Amino acid sequence: MEPSNEQIKQWHNDPKNWKWHVFYYNKEDSRLLVDKRNPNLGSTLNFANPKAYLFFVGMICFFGLVVFTIVLAKK
């Protein structure tokens, strides 16, 4: 079931769902990507969602591969 807009706003504004005011962690929220505290700055991951860690590691591997390829191309 999709959360209502009111529920999403309540979760977003609850400081208990923000670790160090940067990382969103809410087990009740099943969404992977959520707006940052300042929505003008984009989105962040919901680290309570297990898929977030796979996504994060995948991004790190992708950017590592890009850097590795650039370094090899310069040799």
Number of strands: 4
Mean pLDDT: 93
Task: Flag low-confidence runs.
Answer: none
Helix content: 40-55%
Q: Give the strand content.
A: 5-15%
Number of helices: 2
Class based on secondary structure composition and strand pairing: alpha+beta
Taking Cα atoms only, what radius of gyration do you get, to the nearest Å? 16 Å
The succession of helices and strands, N to C, reads: HEEEEH
Give the biggest beta sheet.
2 strands, antiparallel
Oligomer: single chain
**Strand adjacency order, main sheet:** 1-2
Distance between the termini: 53 Å
- What does the overall shape look like? elongated
Descriptive notes:
The protein has 75 residues and is of the alpha+beta class. The longest helix has 25 residues, at 50-74. It has two helices and four strands. 45% of the residues lie in helices and 13% in strands. A hairpin with a 3-residue loop joins β1 and β2 (23-24). The strands form two sheets. The chain has a two-stranded antiparallel sheet with strand order 1-2.
